[in-house]
Amino acid sequence: MKKILSLIVVLACCCLVATAGNKKQEKANADTDMFRYDLEYVRSAGSGVVNVKVWSYSKKKEIATEQSRKNAVHGVLFKGHSGQGSVHNPIVKSATALDEHAEFFQAFFADGGDFQRYVEGSVPGTLEVAKQGKEYKVGIVVRVRTNELRKHLEQANIIRGLSSGF
Q1: Bridge partners (DSSP) listed for residue 43
Q2: By the number of CB atoms within 10 A of the CB, which of 12, 76, 154, 166 ranks highest?
Q3: pLDDT of 13 over the 60 cut
Q4: What whole-number distance in Å separates Cα of residue 113 and Cα of residue 106?
């Protein structure tokens, strides 16, 4: 009887630990699903590649750092970016495109999603971390392949091609 009781207690503890881990990841994903970030243009990194500085916010600096790549792609697509006397419009100009193609963008921005194909990574030595109240503001310069990203969205019929008529 004691063995069965102790086995039940051990299993219950394991379930609680597993559930707590999942809730932390779900909370982190919920924080980044809001896409709270700031984006500024740094410089062109060659033909069809742009360096942007993305400031991500989260209660954990590791999560903000991880989500910076996703936020950079989201910003280039939907917000556009400016800085150093330069203004770049968003690739997706339709305000309703995110809702109209919700299934596509959910898969695109999922953990391990296609957005990763269009981010070359962060520029070494550009990480900045600041504590603001109960959360962290993490800034990092990220390279985004804008030409390839545009082509992918054209092929998926999310946006019209530049060569198509008005």
Answers
A1: 51
A2: 76
A3: no
A4: 9
Amino acid at 138: V
CA 80 to chain centroid, in Å, comes to: 14
Residue 83 Ramachandran class (φ > 0 left, ψ -120 to 50 alpha, else beta): left
Question: Measured between alpha carbons, how far is 103 from 88 in angstroms, rounded to an integer?
Answer: 26
Whether pLDDT at 24 is above 80: no
Which tokens go with 100? 């109209």
Burial status of residue 131 (CB atoms within 10 A of its CB: 0-12, 13-18, 19 or more): exposed
What predicted TM-score, i.e. pTM, was given to this entire model?
0.76
60, 90 contact by CB (below 8 A): no
Torsions phi, psi for 73 (to 5 deg): -65, -45
